[in-house]
Amino acid sequence: MKKAFTLIEMVIVLLVIWILLAATMKFGSNRIIDLKAQSIKEQFVGYYNDIYSQNMTSSFRDGKKYQQLVVVLTTGISYSVDALPLIDSKISGMSIQNLRFETEGMLFPLSHLLFVPYQLWCGITDGTTSWNILYFNLVIPENGKQYCFEIKSETCKLVEQHCND
């Protein structure tokens, strides 16, 4: 007598395969979103480090000589050369939030980092007051991922910190 699968057995096997595929696709799409968030963070860090390292070795930015380079952190990152109009980084899919200085609890809408060519340090200001340390969060709205950073005026290096959730 010949044995064969019944229709019910075939449906059960197909259902199990479908469930496994659905679960795999869900985890796969989350991984893609996480990789996109990581990529946006790396773009931001690369953009900042490009400005920082170029300032260490040159007094030119985009072919323009400058005395002072101002990096502005608001909801994004942009810069200005000698008070000319701001040039946006055009990094999409991110938001800078929770700008704060040494003072705990106070949030500010923006921060200026003032770079002088060939200098290791930079000025950190909210527009009126000078500060020694700037803290901020880089938020990826698509998945809510946060990356926390610190910049100290003595070195002006961008340092990733552990986020206190």
Features:
single chain, elongated, minor pseudopilin epsh fold, 165 residues, alpha+beta, 6-stranded antiparallel sheet
Q: In one word, what is the shape?
A: elongated
Radius of gyration: 24 Å
- Low-pLDDT stretches are none
- The computed structural class is alpha+beta
Mean pLDDT value: 85
Describe the model.
This is Prepilin-type N-terminal cleavage/methylation domain-containing protein. It comes from uncultured bacterium. The model has no long low-confidence stretch (mean pLDDT 85). This protein is of the alpha+beta class and 165 residues long. The protein has a six-stranded antiparallel β-sheet with strand order 5-4-3-7-8-9, covered by helices on one side. A four-stranded antiparallel β-sheet has the order 6-10-11-12, covered by helices on one side. A hairpin with a 5-residue loop joins strand 4 and strand 5. It is elongated and about 90 Å long. The protein has one helix and twelve strands; from the N terminus they run H-E-E-E-E-E-E-E-E-E-E-E-E. The termini are far apart. The chain has one domain: minor pseudopilin epsh fold (3-Layer(bab) Sandwich), CATH 3.55.40.
